[in-house]
Protein backbone atom coordinates (compact mmCIF):
# COMPACT_ATOMS: atom_id res chain seq x y z
CA UNK A 1 0.00 0.00 0.00
CA UNK A 2 1.28 3.48 -0.73
CA UNK A 3 1.70 4.96 2.74
CA UNK A 4 1.57 8.47 4.13
CA UNK A 5 2.70 9.24 7.63
CA UNK A 6 0.47 12.12 8.63
CA UNK A 7 1.78 14.35 11.38
CA UNK A 8 -0.95 16.40 13.04
CA UNK A 9 0.34 19.31 15.10
CA UNK A 10 -1.73 21.41 17.45
CA UNK A 11 -3.89 24.01 15.77
CA UNK A 12 -7.55 24.74 15.21
CA UNK A 13 -7.16 23.40 11.66
CA UNK A 14 -6.43 19.93 13.08
CA UNK A 15 -10.11 19.11 12.58
CA UNK A 16 -9.47 19.26 8.81
CA UNK A 17 -6.95 16.44 9.22
CA UNK A 18 -9.90 14.12 9.84
CA UNK A 19 -11.38 14.88 6.43
CA UNK A 20 -7.91 14.64 4.90
CA UNK A 21 -7.46 11.12 6.31
CA UNK A 22 -10.80 10.05 4.92
CA UNK A 23 -10.08 11.42 1.46
CA UNK A 24 -6.56 9.96 1.38
CA UNK A 25 -7.90 6.52 2.21
CA UNK A 26 -10.53 6.86 -0.53
CA UNK A 27 -7.67 7.61 -2.90
CA UNK A 28 -5.94 4.35 -1.93
CA UNK A 29 -3.41 5.64 0.58
CA UNK A 30 -2.65 3.96 3.85
CA UNK A 31 -2.45 6.72 6.49
CA UNK A 32 -0.37 6.22 9.63
CA UNK A 33 -1.08 9.11 12.02
CA UNK A 34 1.39 10.76 14.37
CA UNK A 35 0.00 13.39 16.74
CA UNK A 36 1.82 15.94 18.81
CA UNK A 37 0.77 16.39 22.42
CA UNK A 38 -0.99 19.69 21.66
CA UNK A 39 -2.83 18.22 18.64
CA UNK A 40 -4.74 16.04 21.10
CA UNK A 41 -6.32 19.23 22.49
CA UNK A 42 -7.98 19.86 19.14
CA UNK A 43 -8.90 16.38 17.88
CA UNK A 44 -9.07 13.17 19.84
CA UNK A 45 -6.62 10.38 19.02
CA UNK A 46 -9.65 8.07 19.06
CA UNK A 47 -11.33 9.77 16.10
CA UNK A 48 -8.02 9.97 14.23
CA UNK A 49 -7.40 6.24 14.83
CA UNK A 50 -10.96 5.35 13.81
CA UNK A 51 -10.76 7.24 10.52
CA UNK A 52 -7.23 6.07 9.70
CA UNK A 53 -7.94 2.48 10.70
CA UNK A 54 -4.49 2.60 12.30
CA UNK A 55 -2.98 3.11 15.70
CA UNK A 56 -2.04 6.71 16.46
CA UNK A 57 1.62 7.24 17.35
CA UNK A 58 2.39 9.99 19.78
CA UNK A 59 5.03 9.55 22.40
CA UNK A 60 8.72 9.26 21.56
CA UNK A 61 9.40 7.38 24.76
CA UNK A 62 6.60 4.84 24.56
CA UNK A 63 8.25 1.44 24.61
CA UNK A 64 5.28 -0.27 22.98
CA UNK A 65 5.34 2.20 20.11
CA UNK A 66 9.06 1.69 19.74
CA UNK A 67 8.58 -2.08 19.71
CA UNK A 68 5.78 -1.90 17.15
CA UNK A 69 7.29 0.70 14.85
CA UNK A 70 10.35 2.57 16.05
CA UNK A 71 10.65 6.26 15.23
CA UNK A 72 13.30 5.57 12.61
CA UNK A 73 10.95 3.21 10.77
CA UNK A 74 8.15 5.76 11.10
CA UNK A 75 10.52 8.21 9.47
CA UNK A 76 11.55 5.91 6.64
CA UNK A 77 8.69 3.50 5.91
CA UNK A 78 6.40 6.07 4.35
CA UNK A 79 6.26 7.07 0.72
CA UNK A 80 5.61 10.60 1.92
CA UNK A 81 5.33 12.55 5.17
CA UNK A 82 2.60 15.16 5.43
CA UNK A 83 2.37 17.69 8.28
CA UNK A 84 -1.19 19.06 8.44
CA UNK A 85 -1.68 21.38 10.13
CA UNK A 86 1.92 22.56 10.43
CA UNK A 87 2.04 25.14 13.21
CA UNK A 88 4.59 27.94 13.50
CA UNK A 89 6.02 26.00 16.43
CA UNK A 90 6.65 22.72 14.60
CA UNK A 91 8.18 24.56 11.65
CA UNK A 92 10.49 26.47 14.00
CA UNK A 93 11.58 23.18 15.56
CA UNK A 94 12.15 21.64 12.14
CA UNK A 95 14.17 24.62 10.98
CA UNK A 96 16.44 24.20 14.01
CA UNK A 97 16.67 20.41 13.92
CA UNK A 98 14.96 19.90 17.26
CA UNK A 99 13.63 16.44 18.04
CA UNK A 100 12.02 16.53 21.47
CA UNK A 101 8.91 14.56 20.59
CA UNK A 102 7.97 11.81 18.16
CA UNK A 103 6.72 14.12 15.39
CA UNK A 104 9.89 16.22 15.29
CA UNK A 105 12.13 13.15 15.70
CA UNK A 106 10.43 11.57 12.68
CA UNK A 107 10.86 14.78 10.69
CA UNK A 108 14.54 14.97 11.59
CA UNK A 109 15.22 11.31 10.79
CA UNK A 110 13.31 11.04 7.55
CA UNK A 111 14.74 10.76 4.07
CA UNK A 112 11.27 10.83 2.50
CA UNK A 113 9.62 13.83 0.81
CA UNK A 114 7.85 16.10 3.31
CA UNK A 115 4.78 18.25 2.60
CA UNK A 116 3.81 20.99 5.04
CA UNK A 117 0.36 22.57 5.22
CA UNK A 118 0.94 25.59 7.51
CA UNK A 119 -1.93 26.96 9.58
CA UNK A 120 -1.64 29.79 12.09
CA UNK A 121 -2.71 33.29 13.00
CA UNK A 122 -1.80 35.80 10.20
CA UNK A 123 0.58 37.73 12.51
CA UNK A 124 2.43 34.54 13.31
CA UNK A 125 2.65 33.68 9.59
CA UNK A 126 3.87 37.18 8.76
CA UNK A 127 6.42 37.28 11.59
CA UNK A 128 9.98 37.50 10.35
CA UNK A 129 10.91 34.43 12.41
CA UNK A 130 8.31 32.30 10.63
CA UNK A 131 9.21 33.79 7.24
CA UNK A 132 12.84 32.81 7.79
CA UNK A 133 11.97 29.34 9.01
CA UNK A 134 9.77 28.73 5.95
CA UNK A 135 12.57 29.97 3.69
CA UNK A 136 15.05 27.62 5.39
CA UNK A 137 12.71 24.63 5.10
CA UNK A 138 11.88 25.38 1.46
CA UNK A 139 15.60 25.67 0.68
CA UNK A 140 16.06 22.20 2.22
CA UNK A 141 13.54 20.78 -0.23
CA UNK A 142 10.40 20.71 1.93
CA UNK A 143 7.19 21.16 -0.03
CA UNK A 144 4.47 23.62 1.00
CA UNK A 145 0.77 23.90 0.29
CA UNK A 146 -0.99 27.06 1.51
CA UNK A 147 -1.67 28.80 3.75
CA UNK A 148 -4.63 30.59 2.23
CA UNK A 149 -6.04 34.04 2.92
CA UNK A 150 -9.44 34.73 4.43
CA UNK A 151 -11.29 34.80 7.72
CA UNK A 152 -9.46 33.09 10.52
CA UNK A 153 -11.00 31.07 13.32
CA UNK A 154 -9.55 33.67 15.71
CA UNK A 155 -11.66 36.39 14.04
CA UNK A 156 -8.81 38.05 12.19
CA UNK A 157 -8.46 38.38 8.45
CA UNK A 158 -5.20 37.59 6.66
CA UNK A 159 -3.07 34.72 5.46
CA UNK A 160 -2.86 31.71 7.73
CA UNK A 161 -5.76 29.39 6.96
CA UNK A 162 -4.69 25.85 6.24
CA UNK A 163 -5.05 24.86 2.57
CA UNK A 164 -8.30 23.08 1.78
CA UNK A 165 -8.28 19.28 1.65
CA UNK A 166 -8.57 19.01 -2.19
CA UNK A 167 -5.52 21.30 -2.55
CA UNK A 168 -3.55 19.18 -0.10
CA UNK A 169 -4.56 16.04 -2.04
CA UNK A 170 -3.46 17.64 -5.30
CA UNK A 171 -0.10 18.60 -3.76
CA UNK A 172 0.35 15.03 -2.49
CA UNK A 173 -0.38 13.55 -5.92
CA UNK A 174 2.15 15.92 -7.47
CA UNK A 175 4.92 15.10 -4.99
CA UNK A 176 4.31 11.36 -4.83
CA UNK A 177 5.04 11.33 -8.53
CA UNK A 178 3.62 9.34 -11.35
CA UNK A 179 1.40 6.45 -10.43
CA UNK A 180 1.74 4.72 -13.77
CA UNK A 181 -0.77 1.97 -13.03
CA UNK A 182 -3.52 4.32 -11.82
CA UNK A 183 -6.84 3.16 -13.26
CA UNK A 184 -5.61 -0.43 -13.67
CA UNK A 185 -6.97 -3.34 -11.64
CA UNK A 186 -4.94 -6.34 -10.57
CA UNK A 187 -5.60 -9.70 -8.94
CA UNK A 188 -2.70 -11.34 -7.12
CA UNK A 189 -2.94 -14.82 -5.64
CA UNK A 190 -0.49 -15.68 -2.87
CA UNK A 191 0.28 -18.20 -0.16
CA UNK A 192 -0.52 -21.91 0.01
CA UNK A 193 -3.89 -23.58 -0.35
CA UNK A 194 -4.88 -26.38 2.05
CA UNK A 195 -6.93 -29.32 0.82
CA UNK A 196 -8.53 -31.05 3.81
CA UNK A 197 -8.31 -34.81 4.34
CA UNK A 198 -10.28 -34.71 7.57
CA UNK A 199 -11.07 -31.95 10.09
CA UNK A 200 -7.40 -31.70 11.16
CA UNK A 201 -5.24 -32.95 8.27
CA UNK A 202 -4.66 -31.42 4.89
CA UNK A 203 -2.46 -31.46 1.79
CA UNK A 204 -0.51 -28.30 1.11
CA UNK A 205 2.54 -26.82 -0.58
CA UNK A 206 5.40 -24.88 0.91
CA UNK A 207 4.87 -21.14 0.43
CA UNK A 208 5.32 -18.18 2.75
CA UNK A 209 3.25 -15.76 0.66
CA UNK A 210 6.10 -13.21 0.84
CA UNK A 211 6.67 -12.83 -2.90
CA UNK A 212 2.97 -12.50 -3.71
CA UNK A 213 2.41 -9.93 -0.97
CA UNK A 214 5.47 -7.95 -2.11
CA UNK A 215 4.08 -7.90 -5.66
CA UNK A 216 0.62 -6.84 -4.47
CA UNK A 217 2.19 -3.95 -2.51
CA UNK A 218 4.41 -2.84 -5.39
CA UNK A 219 1.46 -2.78 -7.80
CA UNK A 220 -0.61 -0.78 -5.30
CA UNK A 221 2.26 1.66 -4.84
CA UNK A 222 2.28 2.16 -8.62
CA UNK A 223 -1.41 3.09 -8.43
CA UNK A 224 -3.15 -0.18 -9.37
CA UNK A 225 -6.29 -1.23 -7.51
CA UNK A 226 -5.20 -4.60 -6.16
CA UNK A 227 -7.19 -7.52 -4.80
CA UNK A 228 -5.05 -10.06 -2.97
CA UNK A 229 -6.60 -13.53 -2.89
CA UNK A 230 -4.56 -15.58 -0.49
CA UNK A 231 -4.32 -18.96 1.11
CA UNK A 232 -2.33 -19.58 4.27
CA UNK A 233 0.63 -17.20 4.60
CA UNK A 234 3.44 -16.57 7.05
CA UNK A 235 3.10 -12.84 6.50
CA UNK A 236 0.10 -10.58 7.02
CA UNK A 237 -1.95 -9.25 4.15
CA UNK A 238 -1.12 -5.53 3.75
CA UNK A 239 -3.29 -3.34 5.96
CA UNK A 240 -5.94 -1.52 3.99
CA UNK A 241 -5.63 -3.72 0.89
CA UNK A 242 -8.67 -5.57 -0.40
CA UNK A 243 -7.70 -9.10 0.69
CA UNK A 244 -9.78 -12.27 0.44
CA UNK A 245 -8.85 -15.46 2.28
CA UNK A 246 -9.39 -18.66 0.32
CA UNK A 247 -8.34 -21.88 2.00
CA UNK A 248 -8.69 -24.40 -0.83
CA UNK A 249 -7.98 -24.29 -4.58
CA UNK A 250 -11.74 -24.37 -5.23
CA UNK A 251 -12.36 -21.44 -2.89
CA UNK A 252 -9.50 -19.52 -4.50
CA UNK A 253 -10.91 -20.10 -7.97
CA UNK A 254 -14.39 -18.98 -6.82
CA UNK A 255 -12.87 -15.80 -5.37
CA UNK A 256 -10.86 -15.09 -8.55
CA UNK A 257 -13.99 -15.46 -10.70
CA UNK A 258 -15.89 -13.10 -8.43
CA UNK A 259 -13.21 -10.44 -8.76
CA UNK A 260 -12.70 -10.76 -12.56
CA UNK A 261 -12.52 -8.76 -14.81
CA UNK A 262 -9.13 -7.22 -14.12
CA UNK A 263 -6.32 -5.81 -16.24
CA UNK A 264 -3.59 -7.88 -14.61
CA UNK A 265 -3.55 -11.35 -13.04
CA UNK A 266 -0.53 -12.66 -11.18
CA UNK A 267 -0.70 -16.21 -9.87
CA UNK A 268 1.90 -16.32 -7.13
CA UNK A 269 -0.04 -18.78 -4.98
CA UNK A 270 1.21 -22.30 -4.40
CA UNK A 271 -2.05 -24.00 -5.28
CA UNK A 272 -2.28 -27.67 -4.37
CA UNK A 273 -2.54 -29.70 -7.56
CA UNK A 274 -4.56 -32.50 -5.97
CA UNK A 275 -7.27 -32.66 -3.33
CA UNK A 276 -8.78 -35.68 -1.56
CA UNK A 277 -11.91 -36.92 -3.32
CA UNK A 278 -13.57 -37.44 0.04
CA UNK A 279 -13.13 -35.37 3.18
CA UNK A 280 -13.70 -37.46 6.30
CA UNK A 281 -16.25 -35.88 8.64
CA UNK A 282 -14.34 -37.03 11.72
CA UNK A 283 -10.63 -37.29 12.43
CA UNK A 284 -9.37 -40.50 10.77
CA UNK A 285 -8.24 -43.00 13.41
CA UNK A 286 -4.75 -44.44 13.27
CA UNK A 287 -5.04 -48.13 12.35
CA UNK A 288 -1.41 -49.12 11.93
CA UNK A 289 -2.30 -50.34 8.41
CA UNK A 290 -1.32 -48.75 5.11
CA UNK A 291 -3.93 -46.36 3.88
CA UNK A 292 -4.83 -44.88 0.54
CA UNK A 293 -6.23 -41.44 -0.11
CA UNK A 294 -7.75 -41.00 -3.53
CA UNK A 295 -6.93 -37.61 -4.99
CA UNK A 296 -8.58 -35.61 -7.73
CA UNK A 297 -6.86 -32.87 -9.68
CA UNK A 298 -7.83 -29.39 -8.55
CA UNK A 299 -8.77 -26.60 -10.90
CA UNK A 300 -5.71 -24.98 -12.50
CA UNK A 301 -6.49 -21.37 -11.68
CA UNK A 302 -3.79 -19.82 -13.86
CA UNK A 303 -4.80 -21.89 -16.88
CA UNK A 304 -8.49 -21.13 -16.31
CA UNK A 305 -7.75 -17.41 -16.09
CA UNK A 306 -5.65 -17.64 -19.27
CA UNK A 307 -8.59 -19.23 -21.11
CA UNK A 308 -11.33 -17.14 -19.51
CA UNK A 309 -13.81 -15.10 -21.55
CA UNK A 310 -12.90 -12.20 -19.26
CA UNK A 311 -9.17 -12.88 -19.60
CA UNK A 312 -7.06 -10.07 -18.15
CA UNK A 313 -4.81 -8.27 -20.62
CA UNK A 314 -1.74 -9.51 -18.82
CA UNK A 315 -1.66 -12.97 -17.23
CA UNK A 316 1.45 -13.89 -15.27
CA UNK A 317 2.27 -17.19 -13.63
CA UNK A 318 5.12 -18.60 -11.62
CA UNK A 319 7.06 -21.76 -12.25
CA UNK A 320 8.84 -23.33 -9.34
CA UNK A 321 10.92 -26.19 -10.63
CA UNK A 322 13.55 -28.47 -9.22
CA UNK A 323 14.89 -29.46 -12.66
CA UNK A 324 14.86 -28.36 -16.34
CA UNK A 325 13.59 -24.95 -15.28
CA UNK A 326 13.68 -23.34 -18.66
CA UNK A 327 12.08 -26.12 -20.72
CA UNK A 328 9.31 -26.63 -18.17
CA UNK A 329 8.56 -22.91 -17.98
CA UNK A 330 8.47 -22.66 -21.77
CA UNK A 331 5.91 -25.47 -21.87
CA UNK A 332 3.91 -23.81 -19.09
CA UNK A 333 3.74 -20.53 -20.99
CA UNK A 334 1.82 -22.20 -23.81
CA UNK A 335 -0.13 -24.73 -21.74
CA UNK A 336 -1.48 -22.10 -19.37
CA UNK A 337 -2.03 -19.38 -21.98
CA UNK A 338 0.03 -17.02 -19.85
CA UNK A 339 1.80 -13.95 -21.17
CA UNK A 340 4.74 -14.27 -18.82
CA UNK A 341 6.08 -17.04 -16.63
CA UNK A 342 8.38 -16.08 -13.77
CA UNK A 343 10.79 -18.89 -13.12
CA UNK A 344 12.06 -19.21 -9.57
CA UNK A 345 14.16 -21.84 -7.95
CA UNK A 346 12.96 -24.03 -5.10
CA UNK A 347 15.64 -22.42 -2.89
CA UNK A 348 13.46 -19.26 -2.81
CA UNK A 349 10.62 -21.01 -1.01
CA UNK A 350 11.07 -19.72 2.52
CA UNK A 351 14.00 -17.39 1.84
CA UNK A 352 14.16 -13.60 1.96
CA UNK A 353 15.75 -13.38 -1.50
CA UNK A 354 14.56 -14.67 -4.84
CA UNK A 355 16.25 -15.26 -8.17
CA UNK A 356 13.83 -14.82 -11.02
CA UNK A 357 13.83 -15.20 -14.78
CA UNK A 358 10.99 -13.63 -16.72
CA UNK A 359 10.01 -15.67 -19.73
CA UNK A 360 7.62 -14.51 -22.44
CA UNK A 361 7.22 -15.41 -26.09
CA UNK A 362 9.23 -12.27 -26.92
CA UNK A 363 11.86 -12.01 -24.23
CA UNK A 364 13.80 -13.59 -21.47
CA UNK A 365 15.07 -11.41 -18.60
CA UNK A 366 17.26 -12.91 -15.91
CA UNK A 367 17.64 -11.00 -12.64
CA UNK A 368 20.30 -11.77 -10.05
CA UNK A 369 19.28 -12.96 -6.57
CA UNK A 370 17.65 -9.93 -4.94
CA UNK A 371 15.14 -9.32 -2.16
CA UNK A 372 11.53 -10.28 -2.79
CA UNK A 373 10.63 -6.59 -2.52
CA UNK A 374 13.15 -5.77 -5.24
CA UNK A 375 11.80 -8.60 -7.39
CA UNK A 376 8.33 -7.09 -6.92
CA UNK A 377 9.60 -3.67 -8.02
CA UNK A 378 11.30 -5.11 -11.12
CA UNK A 379 8.17 -7.02 -12.12
CA UNK A 380 6.05 -3.90 -11.58
CA UNK A 381 8.45 -1.92 -13.74
CA UNK A 382 8.12 -4.50 -16.52
CA UNK A 383 4.32 -4.33 -16.21
CA UNK A 384 4.41 -0.53 -16.42
CA UNK A 385 6.64 -0.74 -19.53
CA UNK A 386 4.35 -3.35 -21.04
CA UNK A 387 1.31 -1.09 -20.77
CA UNK A 388 3.31 2.00 -21.79
CA UNK A 389 4.34 0.26 -25.01
CA UNK A 390 0.71 -0.62 -25.60
CA UNK A 391 1.64 -4.28 -25.97
CA UNK A 392 -1.38 -6.51 -26.49
O1 LIG B 1 1.78 -26.16 -12.97
P1 LIG B 1 2.45 -25.45 -11.85
O2 LIG B 1 1.79 -25.67 -10.53
O3 LIG B 1 3.93 -25.67 -11.77
O4 LIG B 1 2.28 -23.89 -12.24
C1 LIG B 1 2.58 -22.87 -11.35
C2 LIG B 1 1.74 -21.70 -11.66
O5 LIG B 1 0.38 -22.06 -11.83
C3 LIG B 1 1.73 -20.69 -10.51
O6 LIG B 1 1.57 -19.40 -11.05
C4 LIG B 1 0.50 -21.11 -9.71
O7 LIG B 1 -0.05 -20.04 -8.97
C5 LIG B 1 -0.43 -21.57 -10.80
N1 LIG B 1 -1.35 -22.65 -10.42
C6 LIG B 1 -2.70 -22.40 -10.33
N2 LIG B 1 -3.59 -23.40 -10.02
C7 LIG B 1 -3.13 -24.65 -9.79
C8 LIG B 1 -1.77 -24.91 -9.86
C9 LIG B 1 -0.89 -23.90 -10.17
O8 LIG B 1 -3.11 -21.25 -10.53
N3 LIG B 1 -4.00 -25.60 -9.48
Q: CATH class of the largest domain, please?
A: Alpha Beta
Secondary structure class reads alpha/beta
Radius of gyration: 25 Å
Instruction: State which percent range the strand residues make up.
Output: 15-25%
**Number of helical regions:** 14
Report on this structure.
- The protein has 2 domains: about 5-175, Flavin prenyltransferase-like (Rossmann fold, 3-Layer(aba) Sandwich); about 185-390, CoaB-like (Rossmann fold, 3-Layer(aba) Sandwich).
- It has about 400 residues and is an alpha/beta fold.
- The protein has 14 helices and 21 strands.
- The protein is elongated.
- It has an 8-stranded mixed sheet with strand order 12-11-8-13-16-17-19-20, sandwiched between helices.
- Cytidine-5'-monophosphate binds near residues 267, 301, 317 and 332.
Short description:
The protein has 392 residues and is an alpha/beta fold. It has 2 domains: 174 residues, Flavin prenyltransferase-like (Rossmann fold); 204 residues, Rossmann fold, CATH 3.40.50. 34% of the residues lie in helices and 24% in strands.
